[in-house]
């Protein structure tokens, strides 16, 4: 099943809250006519403008999924606002989204990031949104074994409801909680290998790898959309491993 890209009318990047809508893919620069034609994108006369007033060239929809309490909302807030939501845990009701425009290889990439409720009772709501997602960040909590054991069930759900070519990345969150850790990093790596998905550990609290997780996904999506025919395929896990080595693995 191939992914469809809907090109929205200028200025139509407003709240898609009313219904799960397709993320748009459009580009202003860096995309050859051939690549644009083959990816189904069209050249706008100018880049689009997001509802926060930022210009962007292409837009993708990313979903955060995983058990309740693994840190999806905190990860998004850390990425968007650079802050950590400490204090009492307020579980997400239904689904919400935030936009962030990133500069990827001189292209403005807008990520529309959907924060889903992990609680079972909201599952049918989130299922409806899977089919339009270009990427899924699947989280477990390294201090919660059940959240790790449930990853297989989440992956089954993803295969059932999401597009076949959706980008999936497994994240072991709360890596800062060294004393309470019950899932080893190696266990996360092994599971990710088994399912052929990239993996890294993150911490919404310390900021560890948060920017890197979203950047890696944005790079993969941008490459898929704008790749020149003779350009080598972007290797997401290789990129992540290289970046982690460069910054000494565990800095934010
Ligand atoms: N130590 C630590 N705590 C975290 C981290 N991320 C989130 N938390 C805490 O974990 C709890 C749950 O975080 P949320 O982000 O609300 O969890 P969620 O996955 O959005 O949960 P639902 O909305 O119910 O699906 C909160 O008390 C956070 O403060 C982290 O990286 N490290
Ligand atoms: Mg939440």
Automatic annotation (TrEMBL):
Cofactor(s) annotated in UniProt: Mg(2+)
Catalysis: reaction(s): GTP + H2O = GDP + phosphate + H(+)
Ranges where the record places region Disordered: 1-30
One MF term in the entry's GO annotations: metal ion binding
Assigned keywords, A-Z: GTP-binding, Hydrolase, Lipoprotein, Magnesium, Metal-binding, Nucleotide-binding, Prenylation, Protein transport, Transport
Domain of life: Eukaryota
EC number: 3.6.5.2
InterPro entries: P-loop_NTPase, Small_GTP-bd, Small_GTPase
Top-level EC class: hydrolase
Listed Low complexity bias regions: 9-25
Presence of keyword Protein transport: yes
GO BP, sorted A to Z: protein transport
PANTHER family with a match to the protein in the record: PTHR47978
Similarity comment: Belongs to the small GTPase superfamily. Rab family.
Protein name stated in the entry: small monomeric GTPase
Origin species: Anabas testudineus
Organismal lineage: Eukaryota, Metazoa, Chordata, Craniata, Vertebrata
Name of encoding gene: RAB26
């Amino acid at each position: 099943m191939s992914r469809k890209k809907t090109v929205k009318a200028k200025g139509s990047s407003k709240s898609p809250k009313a219904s799960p809508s397709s993320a748009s893919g459009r580009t202003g620069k860096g995309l050859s006519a051939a690549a644009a034609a083959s990816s189904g994108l069209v050249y706008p006369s100018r880049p689009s403008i997001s509802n926060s007033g930022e210009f962007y060239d292409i837009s993708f929809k990313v979903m955060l999924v995983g058990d309740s309490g693994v840190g999806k909302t905190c990860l998004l807030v850390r990425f968007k606002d650079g802050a950590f939501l400490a204090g009492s845990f307020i579980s997400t009701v239904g689904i919400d989204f935030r936009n962030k425009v990133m500069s990827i290889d001189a292209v403005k990439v807008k990520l529309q990031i959907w924060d889903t409720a992990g609680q079972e009772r909201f599952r049918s709501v989130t299922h409806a949104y899977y089919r339009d997602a270009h990427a899924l960040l699947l989280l477990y909590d390294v201090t919660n074994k059940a959240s790790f054991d449930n990853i297989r069930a989440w992956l089954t759900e993803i295969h059932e409801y999401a597009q076949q070519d959706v980008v999936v990345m497994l994240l072991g969150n709360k890596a800062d909680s060294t004393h309470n850790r019950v899932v080893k990093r190696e266990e996360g790596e092994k599971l990710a290998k088994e399912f052929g998905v990239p993996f890294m550990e993150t911490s919404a609290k310390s900021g560890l790898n948060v920017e890197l997780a979203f950047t890696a996904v944005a790079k993969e999506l941008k490459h898929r959309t704008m790749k020149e025919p003779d350009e080598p395929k972007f290797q997401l896990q290789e990129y992540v491993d290289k970046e982690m080595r460069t910054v000494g693995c565990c800095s934010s």
